[in-house]
Amino acid sequence: MIEKLKKAHPITLVIETLGMSRSTYYAKLNHEPSQRQLSNEKLSKKIKNEFFKAKQRYGAPKIHAQLLRQGERCSLKRVQKLMRKLGLRSIIMKKWKAKSSEAANDVNLPNLLKQDFSAPRLNQKWTTDITYIHTQKDGWCYLSSILDLCSRKIIAWDVGRNMETDLVIQTLNKVVHRASHGLILQTDQGSQYLSNAYEKRLNELGIRHSYSLKGYPYDNSAIESFHASLKKEEVYQTTYTDFEAAKPL
């Protein structure tokens, strides 16, 4: 800035306008950027590149992980500080909550998982949930997903026009070949998961049903977190014209 002012105005006027002494003026004019400043400038360019390459979806933790994969040596705290300085914030939209009918809150429903999300082998513990996706023509549609807590990967999913028991059973039927006797499946207390038809199907497969406490998402946080990331990084960035457009996700 001082360099630009110097070219456009007399030195005396610049000094008076900035309210500094002549020695301070020349010190700033002749200042050479430090290695840290140069490093920050270089890193800031990489951060901006990764941020906009991800369509403004990534926050500091994911940007930091991307930089580490590229061999960049920097701390998460430094990335956070530079992103604040650059005014870069990931796109966040408030989660929409639908009003659903109250299901009976049976205090005897077992919570077998008790927030122990560790699983030493595949098909030992699964977790499932439903989330909402909006379309322009058909209104809301519903994504049902099942996640294996060992691999932390989605092993089955389905999209339906209605949030009914058939949707969660259809999703479950896609992975019946994986189900082993004694496998634990964590769900919330939604009416779909409390239905007789769903319980019957689980019993047929030898799957043990574990329930989250009512209104307590931390008991099912793994699948809740996946759906939150999916909506932030994909769904909220896309306009779905109708059900068919949303179905492939």
From TrEMBL:
Biological source species: Pseudolactococcus raffinolactis
Molecular function in Gene Ontology: nucleic acid binding
InterPro entries per UniProt: HTH-like_dom (IPR025948), Integrase_cat-core (IPR001584), RNaseH-like_sf (IPR012337), RNaseH_sf (IPR036397), Transpos_IS3 (IPR048020), Transposase_IS3/IS150/IS904 (IPR050900)
Entry-linked SUPFAM superfamilies: Ribonuclease H-like
Listed GO biological process terms: DNA integration
Superkingdom, natural source: Bacteria
Protein name in the entry: IS3 family transposase
Domain Integrase catalytic: 116-249
Protein task: Involved in the transposition of the insertion sequence.
